[in-house]
C-alpha cells in the first residue's frame, strides 16, 4: 500500500512540474491543465472512497 501512495505522490509532483512549466510558457493551456486536475481529483476521490469504504466495511464486519 505504501508503494502505491509514493507512486501517487510522484504523479502529483510530475503534474505540478508540468503545470508550472506550461504556466510559464503557454498561458492558454492553464485552463486545460486545471480541468484535468479537477476531473482527475474527482475520479481519484471516487476510487479512494470506494476502496476505503470496502476496507472499513470489511474491518467493521470482522469486529462484528
- What fraction of the residues are assigned to beta strands by DSSP? under 5%
Task: Determine the mean pLDDT.
Answer: 80
Beginning-to-end CA distance, first to last residue: 25 Å
| Element pattern in H and E | HH
Determine the fraction of residues in helical runs and give it as a percent range: over 70%
Multimeric state of these chains? single chain
Give an overview of the whole structure.
With 64 residues, this protein is mainly α. It has one domain. The chain is 91% helix and 0% strand. The protein has 2 helices and no strands. The protein has helices at 2-25, 30-63. The two termini are 25 Å apart. The mean pLDDT is 80.
SSE order and pairing:
Elements: H1 2-25, H2 30-63
Helix pairs in contact: 1-2
Key features of this structure:
single chain, 64 residues, mainly alpha, elongated, 91% helix
Can you describe this structure in just a few lines?
The chain is mainly α.
